[in-house]
Amino acid sequence: MSSQLNKVQGDNALHALPHVDGLTVGIVCAEWNEKITGALLQGALDLFAREGYEDVTVAHVPGTVELTFAAAQMARTGRYDAIIMIGCVIRGGTPHFDYVCDNATQGCAYLNATQDVPIIFCVLTCDDEQQALDRAGGTLCNKGTEAAEAAVKMAHFARHFAH
Fold this sequence. Notes:
Distance between the termini: 29 Å
Radius of gyration: 16 Å
Structural class: alpha/beta
């Protein structure tokens, strides 16, 4: 018995960024740890500009806990092909870190399970500011750029399976 794998993207699906005609993206960005979230946001915006995507809406919320509400509101409009949640939580001396990280993670998972638009999780959860800076355009990468790439790929994926 043989089965055939239907490819959603081309042979280079793991590396190639597909083109999505008329892509619309919503980004909700936390103001808390703005030096880091601003760098993540810029990484995402730079990727969209390089790829020729101009229909990007950015909304700011106070902190990471508020990301889920804002992403849900964006999702309910039906206007976006993908939504990115950008935040940064840096471990402190209290359990607050765990509660905020749990809230954002569970909120994003819930939205992905209940909405018809992919919600991309771009929330850094770091032990210190240097770890966050390294992941926001520093020595390691820019996770905002990676989130934008994921948004394009997931929007392409969602369109492939749209009814």
